């Protein structure tokens, strides 16, 4: 049953591009859908996928004037929130740009209610990934170009300052730098 629910959530999470998406009132396999207007004027479309009375997926929809005909109002998804294991805590939050593409994605991989990483995307590809510790502090940042890792920056001392760098050439680790005196610059380099 758990895998069926996770599969359904996967369909809901990935099934919509967000572009010109309109709120709907469909029922999802015995679950329920509720549409409400938020204080900021956006629409909240809430899905109870597994029928347990708790919201599993929320789509945040904004209205905007049609660029070709300002008298027509269109709707697009700007955010999607998912509680994968029905514990009331968000496990995935995706923010969408005006074209309906994911631009930010926060993910809780161990389902403890704390996000483990944030992906920054451009044209559907991850360009930066921030990894968090249990308190939500950034401990490492990975940078990508055309899907290939370029650089990693880490805080190994917990002072919220980068003190460790990895540089990659064609996806292969090339060199490692370490800041030994907390001045923000590498003092030693190790080549691979």
Automatic annotation (TrEMBL):
Name the record gives this protein: EF-hand domain-containing protein
Gene3D superfamilies in alphabetical order: 3.90.930.1
InterPro entries to which the protein is assigned, alphabetical: EF-hand-dom_pair (IPR011992)
